Fold this protein.
Amino acid sequence: MEKEKVLIEIHTRHARICTCALRKTATRAVWGCGNADADIVFIGEAPGKKEDQQGIPFVGSAGKFLGEMLASIGLARADIYITNIVKYRPPDNRDPLPEEKAACQDWLTDEIRLINPRLIIPLGRHALTYFLPDARISEVHGRLFTQAFPDLGTRSIVPLYHPAAALYNGGLRTTLKEDFLKIPRILKTLNKKAVPEK
């Protein structure tokens, strides 16, 4: 419960101090939501129209598809934490600009540091390049990477295609479903690594 309180404080503080220019055109900041003790944090790129209206990430058709894929591996939204690189909706759902990502960076960093997940799953190329700047989603999706960050420490990352992209491309949909099925196995290997040898 204490962690959830701190998470609300993080969101409240950043919603007040964030300098992202998108706050002028968005309805509201869209906070990350879910389990403050989650093993997995999913990270999208930015809120869309429905998210902007409701203030909750992944509530549109991509969110529904994400929910179906979570169910396929025995998880629900309540088990995970989900957020976006950028906390405000870009006009007409355009791609977020580098300066908009930079303005929201401390907010995301504080979320990840508090939750301290075993696994970070960037959804789509914008979230991917935030963590692995030189990677291409078509080449690295579904693979486990271990990366050290100055502000986050060493993190385990499995990039996946964004559910929105998969909705409009049947081939990607199959790929994303297959990649999702790898998540429980990857988590188990991470759990094993976390147990000290006797």
Notes: The longest helix spans residues 2-17. The chain has a mean pLDDT of 93. The chain has one domain: 2-194. The chain is about 45% helix and 15% strand.
